[in-house]
Amino acid sequence: MKRSLRILSIIVLLLLCISFSKTNFPIEVKDDLGRVIKFSQIPKRIVSLAPSSTEILFALGLDKEIVGVTDFCDYPKQAQTKEKVGGFSNPNVEKIVKLNPDLVVLYKSFPKEIFNQLTQLLPNTNFIVLDPKNFEDVLNNILLLGKITGKETSALKIHGNMLRRLKEIERKLTFIKPSKKVLFLLWNDPFISASPSTFIGDLFKKLKVINIVENETPEYPILSIEYIVNKNPDYIIIGEMSGINIDSIINKPEFSSISAVKNRKVYYVNDDLVFRPGPRLIDGLEALFRIFYPNL
After folding, report:
1. Could you give the CA distance from residue 281 to residue 274 in angstroms, rounded to a whole number?
2. CB under 8 Å to 212, separation ≥6 — which residues?
3. pTM above 0.70?
C-alpha cells in the first residue's frame, strides 16, 4: 500500500509539473476573490499582511523579496527581522506605502476599508487576496504564490510533501467511520469554536471526527455552555494561545457530565500549526491525528 501511495504521489507531481511548468511573464491569475490580476514581471518587493502568507513566502525561498510583515509574523525566525507594518486589523498604511511593494498578500478577513485605501495609494501594486476554506485551498494558494513569484519548483515540492503526508493519514483512516465528537475551542470568554466551513473544520473532516458545530455559518460561532453540554463531545481540543487552562475546563462544574471531561480527553494543540493556513498545516493535521488515533 505504501508503495502504491508513493507511486500515486509521483504521478500527481508529474501531472502538476506538466500543467504548471515554468511561468513566462506576463501572466494573469485569479485570487480567492475571483479577481483577475496581471503580473508583467516577477515581484521584487513583497509585503505580507498575515502570518500564514509570510510562512508560505519564506517556504518558497523569498527571503530577499519580503520587505514587510505584520507584528504577528514570527515564523520562520527570519520573519522577525523584517520591517513590521503593524497588526492584522490595524496595519500602518503609511509604512506599507513607504515600503513601495509591487506585491501585497493578504486575506479576505483583512479590513475592507484599509484594503481600499491601500489599493488607491498603491495603484501600480498587485494585491493577492487569499481565502482558503479547506486543506486543498491551502495547497492551491501555495501553488498560486509560487507561480506569481517564479518559485514554481519550490511550490511543487511543498505541495507534494503536504499531499503525500495527507494521503498517508487518509490511508490509515480508510476503514474508520466517524464516531468521535469533538469540540475545538479558540477562545473561552465567550467560548468560540470553528464551523465545518473553515479550513480548521476541514481538518476534522479529514480525520473522520465529528465537529459538534454543525452549522456552516458563522464561521467562528460563539457556543453556549448549554450547547456544549448537550452535544457531549468525546474530545475537547484547545489552542495553546487561547488563554484557556485545561484545568478550568476539567473542573468546570457545568462540564462534569461531558464525556471528554470525565475521560480526561482534553488536549492542547499548537495554535500556529492549525490556525495558520500555510505549509505547517500538515503538521497540525498530524498532531491532531496523534491525539485521536494514538494507536494507528
Report:
1. 6
2. 181, 182, 183, 193, 228, 231, 233
3. yes
